Amino acid sequence: MKKIIAILGICSVIFACGSEKSESTEETSSTTKTEEAAPATAAVGSATGEKLISTSDCLTCHQVNSKIVGPSYVDVANKYPATDENIAMLAGKIIQGGSGNWGEIPMAPHPAISTEDATEMVKYILSLKTN
What we know:
By secondary structure, this protein is mainly alpha-helical. The protein has one domain (2-19, 44-126): Cytochrome Bc1 Complex, Chain D, domain 2. Helices cover 47% and strands 0% of the residues. The chain has helices at 2-17, 33-37, 46-54, 73-79, 84-96, 115-126. The chain is globular and about 30 Å long.
């Protein structure tokens, strides 16, 4: 049963990754739970990173506080200190994909995301550190 769920998860990732950034330009003025949960010492650029994530397919597999297909953003932030080296490495994982660090299910590559955008996304994610 776990293998079937994993395969379905991978298929949904592949399907979701085929789409580019959302073409929607709607903006909302409401505060999200993510904004409320972000610590006061959030990394510079984290608001940009949060917006980039919200307009990408990232939320198909990741959530701020709970594991879906991939780890929660809080789990990622708690695992990796916000160093320049880790930011560059994680931005590379967003663009090139990866596997093995969080289990058997690989993260699909996102080659359409620029290094600059991936870096901002990672800065936002690492700003969510809780411990």
